[in-house]
Amino acid sequence: MLLYLLDLAGVAVFAVSGVLAAGHAGLDWLGVVVVASVTAVGGGTLRDLLLDRHPVFWIRDVRYVYAILAATALGIAWVHVMPLPEHALALADALGLGLFAITGAQVAEERRLPAVIVMLVGTMTGAAGGLLRDVLTARIPLLLSSGIYGSAAIAGIAAYLLLQAAGTPRRWAFHAGVLLIVALRLGGIYGGWHLPVLRLPA
């Protein structure tokens, strides 16, 4: 039940990040709904297709669709009532990345897949929706920028797996993994943390 509720929360948070990105791009309300929906279900859909889970999660359970629509409506209402806080999109994306990366890793983990596959599936689950959102709104994808993003998901999932291997209860390992991802992502936003950049000689 906890995994299910957190998955719903991740969908809702990513939908809000899609609303904010669509607002910055000046899309109409239909465009906002499309971008929010693609952002919310993109990573989980890729996860389910890769793991041969049919039907995909949002077709199997319509409550995910309701969560997306509710979060989208709230997001639209929010931006019309009060100004957007600085970095609002990045903050929503950081939380969605943390929740989706670890829940995606847990789904792969339940299939008893190797740890490296669990990390890859979790990272794709967390990052694919944001990648699609950025492409649709003509932004340089956060996944491909020099800031901490995909690497934060990898680090958080690795911590989650290592903590469990050391005997930490799964629930606490989950929270630790999510917090690490969010903390690293916020470090990239506010602290300028980034991986080394490849620069080829001219």
TrEMBL record:
- Domain of life here? Bacteria
Give the record's membrane topology. Multi-pass membrane protein
Task: Tell me where in or outside the cell this protein is found.
Answer: Cell membrane
Q: Which Pfam families match?
A: Gly_transporter
Q: Which UniProt keywords are given for this protein, alphabetically ordered? A: Cell membrane, Membrane, Transmembrane, Transmembrane helix
Q: Which residues cross the membrane?
A: 31-50, 62-81, 87-108, 115-132, 138-163, 172-193
In terms of InterPro entries, this protein maps to:
Gly_transporter
Residue ranges occupied by any Glycine transporter domain in the UniProt entry = 5-77, 91-164
UniProt GO cellular component terms:
plasma membrane
Q: Give the similarity note.
A: Belongs to the UPF0126 family.
Under PANTHER family, the record lists: INNER MEMBRANE PROTEIN, UPF0126 INNER MEMBRANE PROTEIN YADS-RELATED
Protein name from the UniProt record: Trimeric intracellular cation channel family protein
- This chain's source organism reads Acidovorax cavernicola
